[in-house]
Model the fold of this input.
Amino acid sequence: MITVTMDRFALARTFTISRGSKTEAQVLTVRVTRGGVTGWGECVPYARYGGTLEGDAALIAALPPGITRAEVQEALPPGSARNALDCALWDLEAKAAGVRVWQLAGLPEPRPVPVAFTLSLDTPEVMRAQAAENAHRPLLKIKLGTPDDMPRLEAVRAGAPHATLIIDANEGWSPEVYSDLAPHLLRLGVAMVEQPLPAGADDMLAEIARPLPVCADESAHGAASLAGLRGKYDLVNLKLDKTGGLTEALLARAEARRLGFGVMVGCMVGSSLAMAPAVLVAQGSAYCDLDGPLLLSQDRSAPLHYDAAGVHPSQPALWG
Done:
């Protein structure tokens, strides 16, 4: 039996990127029950590509209840619906076998991974205050993506003078804006910039100077999408809601490394259930951006543990 519910988790504060704001995480929870055992997974439909909770629920409802994980890869397109079902089936398989998912997948035992903390797009004054509040964190990710970003970046650096900074423009810059900003990013000690130009309009990255590493997010999906990014990007951001689950994310990670890309593992704003499978993919990554639960005012029971070491692998009571 496959059941689907739509759940909401309030955010600790309004979260804003260049495309809009949200005050809650709206997620789809998928449960698969067979032989008295239930596995579950979570997804956040990707609004950037027209995904909705209702649309994902309908895709899953149309599938046979006994579908296997291998069959899911063909039955559903890459994306959030396949992610939630794929991760639920991994959880089910592990519980039925009495082992952990990492063992089923032939992976080394996972360890805590240092994690970035994301600062929402806001006024320079508010972003400086956010940065100061989180200045103890070693890695801050800053949401930008407007023509007026320099005051925001200067404010964040003033608020957190010692943190490593990475920038996510969420497709919000033009080639001209990015070229103008790049020297200032270097001056302020920015380590990497994520998706500065719109996906599908990013060929210019192969032609202009890239004075600091550039990471593909909206341009990177599953394993098959990565070869076309060579020459434009230095890293790829693998999110399970884009790859379509843990199965494809592990293949995409292997392909990224084969092609010479650094790997970042990111997330949508969701609960610990959505992050738990991604922690396995984030092992050994250049950057881990699985801070979704840190942005919530409420989370799942048995949530992931975060401390100075980063995000810890899930306990069986949560997933896997």
Q: What stands out?
A: The longest strand covers residues 2-17. DSSP finds ten helices and 13 strands in the chain.
